[in-house]
Amino acid sequence: MALFLAIFLLLLGNSLLSTLLILRGIAEGFSGKFLGVLTSVYFLGAFIATLMASKMIKRMGHIRCFTFCTALLGCCTLAYALVVSPYAWLIIRFATGFGVFAMYTVVESWLNGQTQDDYRSRVFSIYTLINLLAVAASQQLLLIDNATGYTLFIVASLLVTAAIMPISWTRLQQPIVDVDMPSMSIRKVFDAAPVAVTGCLVSGLIMGPFWGLTPLFVSGLGYTENELAAFISLSILGGALLQYPVGRWSDYMDRRRVILFTFILGSLLALAMALSAQFYVVERGLITGLSAIFCGLVLAIYPISVVHLVERINKDHLVAGSSCLLMIYGLGSFVGPTIAGFTLEYMGAGALPTYYLFVLAIFSVVLSIQLLRSRIVEVPEDHESHYVAMVRTSSNVLPMHPESEEVLDPAEEHRSESHEPNRA
């Protein structure tokens, strides 16, 4: 519960901050292309954190590493309001992405150390649910004040700083960190499951701009801050409810064709959103409903891709292969917001769903070619794995995946060693 509470507070504050920055940037007159670059810089910091966090934890320990990153994030959150400058924000945003994903790594590696095989699916499901609920609930905090003041920045800083309290209070044994995890090259992953690589890349290209630029898109349609908060919350909650039926459908069909279906249907929904933004902007319910369905489809692409890869490789390579897919997702999340930000700058509010349409249409063709070239015929009855909704945070969450065969209880091993008699 201490670890779950810490990640909930972290996500509550950080998700509020992500939306708040876009709204404040709009109020300060920052361009759409700059806000897109700002989002990309965040994911660049996140990518660097995934490379360095395990070594930081090994050097500092879980609690001190979490404390360090909490202090960094709390300072960054307040610095945005104190120094309203595009160049300063780029540096601060990079540090924010680094701190957030380092904290993800701390909590997730610690959860791995406490998760036993019998409870793996349960812990994994609760963790995913907490992520989605925190992101959706955070948008309602926008109702406290407007983005031009200091109040919301202080609230976000309070929340992320409060995340350190359950971590510091807990008496849980800190796990041993293994920095020598097996690796798997992108080439091998692509040879094993090219559709999974395509799916994760597209998921990053879509969800990166969705998380970072949706406030800019909605504000361009004339929504108030209250309407914006409702739009994002309903989109995320509706998407969370929808992705499970889509994922379960992939358990009974060729997963590659399900991914292609999500690309095609997502293209049609993006087209409908673009047309609604252009001609039916007053129909708030229509655009929100389309966004919720679209979000549900796109959220399902990444976990379906992971499960598809699991069925193509040995299960003892799940963490290495899935980490590679997470890296590809991160690449898409880094590139996507910059491209989408430029389209928003020059094409107006309807450009974001137009960008979604362009990406999904292009990769629908790519995926169709991959399926035509593939000589492997997948038989649904032979599926050995089942769909599991997943979060895209750090690679340390992957050993909790129900299909993983990693040893998940290094803390228990550490405790048993500590009780052995001194043989010296």
TrEMBL record:
Residues 405-424 are annotated as: Disordered. CDD domains: MFS_YcaD_like. SUPFAM superfamilies: MFS general substrate transporter. GO terms for molecular function: transmembrane transporter activity. InterPro entries: MFS (IPR011701), MFS_dom (IPR020846), MFS_trans_sf (IPR036259), MFS_YcaD-like (IPR047200). Residues 411-424 have a biased composition (Basic and acidic residues). Keywords: Membrane, Transmembrane, Transmembrane helix. The keyword S-adenosyl-L-methionine does not apply. The chain crosses the membrane at residues 34-53, 65-84, 90-111, 123-144, 150-169, 189-208, 228-246, 258-280, 286-306, 318-342, 354-372. Residues 192-424 form the Major facilitator superfamily (MFS) profile domain. One of its GO terms (cellular component) is plasma membrane. Pfam families: MFS_1 (PF07690). This is Major facilitator superfamily (MFS) profile domain-containing protein.
